[in-house]
Task: structure prediction
Amino acid sequence: MRLDKFLKVSRIIKRRPVAKEVADKGRIQINGVLAKSSSNVKIGDQVKIQFGNKILEIEVLELRDSTKKEDAEKMYQIISEKRVENSDDV
Result:
C-alpha cells in the first residue's frame, strides 16, 4: 500500500494531499530510510513521522483499503512519541 494512502486510511494524517506533502518534504522514514508518498508500506514496517515539534514512531499492524474511525487505530501500534525543542535538529 502507498504510504500516503496508509497515513490517510489509518487517520494518522487526515487528508492524503497533506500526507503527500509531509512525505515529499523528507519528514517520513520507513525502517530508517527516507520515504516518498509513493513508497510501499508493509505489515511490520516501522514508520517515523516528524510533525513540527513532535516525532511519532509507529509499527504497521494491518493494511486496509478503508476503515471506520474506531478501527483505524488497530492498523498501527505507537512505538514512541517524542517532543523536540527545535525541528531543525532532526
The first strand starts at residue 28 and ends at 30.
